[in-house]
What we know:
By secondary structure, the chain is mostly helical. Helices cover 80% and strands 0% of the residues.
Amino acid sequence: MISYIFFFLILLGAAFCAYRMATNDLRHRIIPDIYLFPFMFAGLLLTTFFMWPTNIADSVIGGAMGYCLGLIVGFLFERFQKPDDKYPPIGLGDIKLLGAGGIWLGTVGLGIAMMIACAFSCVWVFKNKKRYIPFAPFFLMGVFLSLIIIQFLL
C-alpha cells in the first residue's frame, strides 16, 4: 500500500517537471536543469524499484542511446547551419531530455516517442511557419503516448 503512494507521488512529481519543461521551452527556448534532473531521477527510481515501464538494464541502454542520438542529430544539424544563425539548431537541454526519455522508456519506447515527436513537430512547423521548434513539448507528448502504447499495446 505504501509503495503505491510512493509510486504515484513520483509520477506526480515527474508530471509537474514535464509540464514546467514544456512551458519553459515554449516561452523561453530553454529547458532548465532544475526540472530536467528530477524528471530523470524519477525515471531511474521507477525503473529501479518498480520495474515500470521497463527494467533497469533497458532503461540505462535507452538513456545512453537517447543521449548519443541527440548528440549525433545536433552535430549533423550544426554542419548544415547557416553562418548568420545566432541560435544553435539543437540545444543541450534537448539532448539531455532525449537521454531522460530513454531512461523512462527504454530502447523501444524511445524510438516510438521520437517518431511521435517528429510527426507532431512537423505539423507545428507547417502550421506556424517558424524557424525554430520547441522540441520539449512534442517529445514529452511522445513520451506520454509511448508510455500508453508500451503498457496497453505491446
